[in-house]
């Protein structure tokens, strides 16, 4: 049916195409920058106050702002090359909506995870062996509560990505997509940080968990964001965007229909 969205695996030539390689490198660099600044803000508070993690309201605000600013920049600098996903969950949301091929999604996932690991390693080296803190479920919060929280927050993030960067009706709104994406992450950290850390990003959780070797409840920070992202992608792509509007599977910048 003309205009119908479809899932695409992608050809083998895509893996070595210069555009795909540039996009993959852009995801690696942007994710490294984002995780370095985000996790670094948490370690900086620990250095200042001698308490690991975020233990005060002002500290929570500082961490939320650091993540919002860092993600705004990370998305902006990669948007014209890879679309600026900077998050395996965002990539999954784009994949289920048919915005990228499976092959490109796999390349992005590898780049994002490697970027997060490199960022955590750099932090451990530059802070004289401080262990990255990563994410943890707060006292008195059940695993199910934390899981649902991650689903809800990531749904809001990926829905924002679709509304500001992918919707063909967005018009001039597309110019503020990186800012909107950064702001929703910062706002969600303020809302969910005391409960489960507010990851919304499996790579952001994985890098510090691996380097700092903190694995308790780590599955929450994979299942929750991936489920939330898939739901947001399906809802916005197939309910909010008219089915008659076709789009290519190849990447386009933020200002186009692809992300």
From TrEMBL:
Bilayer-crossing regions: 60-81, 101-123, 144-164, 176-198, 219-239
Membrane topology: Multi-pass membrane protein
Subcellular localization: Membrane
Predominant location category: membrane
InterPro entries, A to Z: Aquaporin-like, Aquaporin_transptr, MIP, MIP_CS
Tree of life domain: Eukaryota
GO cellular component: membrane
GO molecular function, one term: channel activity
SUPFAM superfamilies found in the cross-reference section: Aquaporin-like
Keyword Transport assigned: yes
Alphabetized UniProt keyword annotations: Membrane, Repeat, Transmembrane, Transmembrane helix, Transport
Record NCBIfam families: MIP (TIGR00861)
Family: Belongs to the MIP/aquaporin (TC 1.A.8) family. TIP (TC 1.A.8.10) subfamily.
Designated name of the protein: Aquaporin TIP3-2
Originating species: Nelumbo nucifera (Sacred lotus)
